[in-house]
Amino acid sequence: MRIRLLLCCLLFGFSAIGQVSLVDDINPTGDASPLKLTVFKKSLYFTANDGTNGRELWQYNGTNTTLFDINTTAGAGSSPTGLFPFQGNLYLSADDGNNGKELWRGDGTSFSLFLDINSGSGDATPNAFVEYNGQMVFTAFQPLPVAREPMISDGTVFGTQLLADVSPVTNTSSNAEFYTEYNGNLYFSGASTVGGANGVQFYVTDGTGAGTQMVKRINSSGDAFPRDYIVYNNLIYFTAEDGVNGRELWVSDGTNAGTQLVQDLYSGPIGSSPGFFTIYNNRLYFKASHATLGTELFYVNTSGSIVNAANINPGSASSLPSCLKVFNGKLYFSATDGTSGTELWETSGTAVSTVMTKNINPGSNSSSPKEFTEYNGKLYFNASEDFTGAELWVTNGTSAGTIMVADINPSFGPQGDPEQLTVFNNKLLFVANNGTSGRELFEYTDPTLSVQHQELNKDLTIYPNPVSENFKIDNESQIKSIVIYNIQGKEVKVFGYKQSVYGIANLKSGLYFAEIVTDRGVVSKKIIKH
Questions:
Q1: How many CB atoms lie within 10 A of CB 133?
Q2: 89, 108, 127: which is the final residue of a domain?
Q3: CATH code of the domain in which 523 resides
Q4: Rounded to two decimals, what is the model's pTM?
Q5: Tens digits of per-residue pLDDT, 295-328?
Q6: Which of 43, 287, 315, 331 could be a cystine partner for 321, CB 3.0 to 4.6 Å?
Q7: What are the residue boundaries of the Secretion system C-terminal sorting domain, all occurrences included (predicted)?
Q8: What single string gives the DSSP state of each residue in 179-213?
């Protein structure tokens, strides 16, 4: 029975491995390290370093990758950031080597300088893009004495202008960030020197200079640093430091009087440092620290009270919940009970229903699940085992259905470490390292979605099978490579191109798997060696 179960798992695993493929070895001499994966107009845009042009903007249309070389100086790179879709264009911050880091845009086929905000070679470095009332709001450094302040754009050069000089004292910046829309207005964090040293406080704008003002000076002695904004129960919640209670949870109805501390959850100046805010089942869940409960899972209910969802690591020890994600009617997250390490947990909203979904890395070591992303009705994530390291995993919400999708980097020790999981073109895109290509862009297709894969699997035939010495492949597609694995998943033979026959006479008798890469996709086949 154990052998049959192992065989089933291997068959599933190799089928899944067959669905993971390298999109393009963008940097053939090292790591391309793609960043900012952004879906726009049926293509995926990202930044990457090909080892020749520096970090530039790239496009993947589902078939081919295309470089947009904004800074044409060899090796310089334009270092794009932002990547914000607005009114049929993709906006970004980039440096062409002449104008500094400025506001660029493109329709997906070409990109050009939209506006040199900080004229000359100085950097405007636009960031914190958000759409508000049909316009684009962002923060950029403008020529002194204005400095770094909020801007607003209707998508035209003439309609792109200073929204408000929040910190109007000469040569001082508000560094506005964390824009969040609530109740028809846009709330943000910013610094000002008006009326004394206000520091970074809680602000609001209605899209006009006159309608931009401080909501409340939360910390009268310094910076409040409000952040982590989220709208829940017709109020805006965030974290801030009032100079007395440390970083705690705050709430506002948009008025000065209605902006207040929810609760000093960790009494005294230490602060509970709430984070990972997620709305589930009409509650606002988050992690926070408590003097007697440790760092655990809490929620705010509709009455505005903070409740401990469960003391997962009993007593004052901490479960350290993180990466909260709603999936299939439950809330999933990473946590430790103090015995099993950091593993995959779930809750339906009660202490009794807060349980470990699966101990992925048995024992006291952690699998540390993260990067939770829903794709085709399943939850994919990055998790680690002692043997494989951090690889791509999936769960359907059950322990039995929580399995490794693929050992992307099959070498012992190194790991694939998939990150930036992004759904695009009915596939799961991510950045990983397969051990040979460096850190590049990969894609995974759920076999249930891949009709092409099913057709390829049906049309491709290995014969004879069982095999004594040589086998042939009946297939109309062009074969690019074949990798033979043994039943333990170890690579034992590689064929780099289409041959008339494939020899495996040197292999021992037993069961093997052939991963066959063609111009139509990847398929796995079982081989029995006499």
A1: 12
A2: 108
A3: 2.60.40.3080
A4: 0.81
A5: 999 999 999 999 999 999 999 999 999 999 999 9
A6: 287
A7: 462-528
A8: EEEETTEEEEEEEE-TTS--EEEEEEESSSSTT-E
